[in-house]
Design brief:
With about 190 residues, the protein is an alpha/beta fold. It is built from 5 helices and 6 strands; from the N terminus they run E-H-E-H-E-H-E-H-E-H-E.
């Protein structure tokens, strides 16, 4: 089974970095859409591939470009997560996830995966490491039942947190994938 992490393309909150980090629900810029379209052209997706997507506008737009049939699942368990984890840093508005009700309203027919847990406030962004590991292990167990290729469309910090959880060591911000970056891991 292959787990493939994809980082969203260039987001609107990065146009005037760091001045626009407090933009609510930033989408992809035209450049970000071009990055993801290029990634789509270079990739061969099948109907058996499963896509899990963070509940942010920029990751959902990424999924919609890659998966034109909108056959993906939105889950807060791959939402933005700060890396390295530092609860003393301020919460960035750009990392606010959509609430479950807004996803249902704006993205009709898209499946949601939350294991019926109350995890929609800040998502996984600043939860304590033990709770994050519990949520992540639940998601990984669910993923292992699905098989085939699983794509996770997410954010640099989240991807790095999952890579550590999957056994990589001594990762830093220098290991971030960057815009439209891809990381593959066999499980």
């Amino acid at each position: 089974m292959e787990l493939i992490f994809i980082r969203h393309g260039h987001g609107e909150h990065l146009i005037d970095y760091p001045n626009q980090l407090n933009t609510l629900h930033p989408g992809l810029t035209p450049y970000g859409k071009m990055q993801i379209n290029q990634l789509a052209e270079e990739s061969a997706f099948t109907t058996n591939d499963l896509f899990l997507v963070s509940p942010t506008k920029r990751t959902i737009e990424t999924a919609q470009i890659l998966r034109k049939d909108n056959n993906f699942i939105i889950t807060p368990f791959v939402g933005p997560r700060m890396f390295p984890q530092n609860p003393n840093l301020p919460f960035l508005i750009c990392d606010q996830i959509y609430c479950k009700e807004d996803i249902i309203k704006y993205y009709l027919g898209i499946e949601i995966l939350d294991f019926e847990l109350d995890c929609w406030g800040e998502g996984i962004n600043r939860i304590d490491p033990n709770t994050f590991e519990d949520y992540a292990h639940r998601l990984l167990a669910w993923i292992k039942e699905k098989g085939n290729r699983i794509f996770i469309i997410s954010h640099d910090g989240t991807i790095t947190n999952y890579r550590i959880l999957l056994g990589e060591q001594e990762l830093t911000r220098k290991d971030f994938l960057g815009e439209a970056g891809v990381f593959r891991r066999t499980l």
